[in-house]
Amino acid sequence: MNTTVLGPDGEARCRWCAAAPEFLDYHDTEWGFPVGDDLRLFEKLCLEGFQSGLSWRTILAKRENFRSAFHGFDFNRVARYTERDVDRLMKDQGIVRHRGKIEAVINNARRAQELVKRHGSLAAYFWDFEPDADQLSKPQAASQSAQSAALSKELKKQGWQFVGPTTVYAFMQAMGLINDHAEGCVTRLKVADARKAFRHPGR
Q1: Which residues are catalytic?
Q2: 16 CB burial (10 A radius; 0-12, 13-18, 19+)
Q3: 94: pLDDT strictly greater than 70
Q4: What is the DSSP letter of 138?
Q5: Which of 9, 41, 48, 111 is least crowded, fewest Cβ atoms below 10 Å from its Cβ?
Q6: By three-state DSSP, how is residue 5 classified?
Q7: What is the pLDDT, as a whole number, of residue 52?
Q8: Are 6 and 149 in contact (CB under 8 A)?
Q9: 28 touches 40 (CB < 8 A)
C-alpha cells in the first residue's frame, strides 16, 4: 500500500494528511517536530486523552476552544481547578463535554506538578523514553510500542489517567519522540533535521 500522497505543491506527504483540509498544515508544521516545552507536552497528552473514541479531526477543530477553556493547559493553574470549573467545562459547547476526561485533565495537572518536582520538567522525563533508532518499527506500522507501553505503565503508576499505550504512542509520534513520517514524505526529512538540532531536555 502506498503510504504517501502528493500535496498541492506536488511533493509527497503522509497519506493521512489528505483526509481533511486542516490536516495539511498540522502535518507540515507540527506533527513529528520535537517539542521540549512542558505546556505543549501537557496539552498534547490531554488532547490525546480527549481523542479516545473520537477522531483527531474533531479534536483539532476544537483545539483553540480547549486552549481557552483550560487556560492554555497551564498545568499549575489547572491543578487548582475545583468542582465549579468542572461544571463550567461541562457547559462549554466548544469542547468535548466528557466529565471523566475533564476530571482526568485536572488530575493529570496535579500529577504533572509532582513529576516536575521529581524530574525538573515534563520534557526531561518524557524524552527519557525516546527509543533508539534500532527499536523503531516501519513508519506508521504500529499503534503502540515497547516505549509507549513503558511510559504508559509508569504514568499510570503515578496516578495519571487516560494514558494508555496507544494514546501515549500517538503523543510520542506528534511530539517528535519518534519520526513516524512515511518514507518519501517531504516532511520526514525536515523532522529528521529538527531532531538532529534538538537539545535533549535534562541533558
Answers
A1: 26, 48, 56
A2: middle
A3: yes
A4: S
A5: 9
A6: strand
A7: 86
A8: no
A9: no
- What confidence tens digit (pLDDT) does each residue in 138-166 have? 766 668 888 999 999 999 999 999 999 99
Q: Enter the C-alpha cell of residue 77.
A: 493553574
Whether residue 105 has pLDDT greater than 70: yes
CA–CA distances in Å: residue 173 to residues 86, 88, 148? 30, 32, 10
3-class secondary structure, 6: strand
Measure the CA–CA gap between 19 and 92, rounded to whole angstroms.
Answer: 27
Strand positions, DSSP E, the chain: 4-6, 12-14
- Cell for 124? 526531561
pLDDT at 134: 67
The rounded distance, in Å, linking the Cα atoms of 67 and 92 is 12
d(CA 150, CA 105): 21
| Nearest C-alpha neighbor of 126 from the set 27, 30, 35 | 35
pTM above 0.90, yes or no: yes
4-6 and 12-14 beta bridge pairing:
antiparallel
d(CA 102, CA 9) in angstroms, rounded, equals 40
pLDDT interval class at 203 (50, 70, 90): low
The single-letter code of the amino acid at 94 is: G
